[in-house]
Amino acid sequence: MRMADLGWTDIALTNATAEILLKALGYDPNSTILGLNVTFEALKNNDMDVFQGNWRPVQDIDFKSYFDDGSVIAVGTNLEGAKYTLAVPKYVADAGVRSFDDLAAHGAKFDYKIYGIEPGSNKPIEDMLAAKAHDLSGDWELVESSEAGMLAQVKRAVEKKDWIIFLGWQPHPMNVNMELTYLSGGDTEFGPDFGGATVRTLVRNGYPEACPNVTKFFSNLKFDINYENAGMNMIMTDGVEVPVTAKKMMIEHPEKVVAWLDGVTTIDGKSGLETIKAELGLK
């Protein structure tokens, strides 16, 4: 059972959670790090089975053809209340940059750079710069690296009180560990409500028929902002290994485990919940 991972900490947490539970149920899950566009192609070509990172509405627009032709199928919403848009440190917002339309006038202070994550995940920014939207013409450029690389750049800038624009999102420890401001005015690029998003779980075409029990499990597997912020903070700030964090979070939230295993069995048809309770030491 093959899961796609973009190298994002939130997907690392949700995939590790699924792996622990599915292994206890008798399956053989594994995760592979891919780019976002490669993930959709891999699902289409039956090279991947599951992807827990379908951020909507942005990806539904950028990858519309995959939904239209039935290459990918949504089996559930695993997170509500997410957001995904450009952000600046609070001291930059306090100096007057609160909207996408404020950026152009301060280009030199930003060194005409917008910091994103891995290639394939920054399309709204790429399209914005290509269209010269918000008067972002001339020398403006996108700097792509990775989640960790971008956040390291932001941390260095904040330590020196330099001005920086970057791709921000929630859930993420950045919302806990730094004072940041999400920019308004990016509805065209990221959608309304500061890129307000839900996150869905996708499977490849044919997977629900081939693996109905696992599909039921993934349709049940729902998180929330506080859960993911806490888990991701444990990983990124405290340095706890991802599988250890995933297991600790489940032990601390047994009510979620009960909901996740509703109607789910082991690979040989036994009670999934009782098996998981024994695995995690839950009562």
From TrEMBL:
Q: Where is the ABC-type glycine betaine transport system substrate-binding domain?
A: 3-246
Q: Which Pfam family is one of this chain's hits?
A: OpuAC
Q: What is this protein called?
A: Glycine betaine/proline transport system substrate-binding protein
The species this protein was found in: Pararhizobium capsulatum DSM 1112
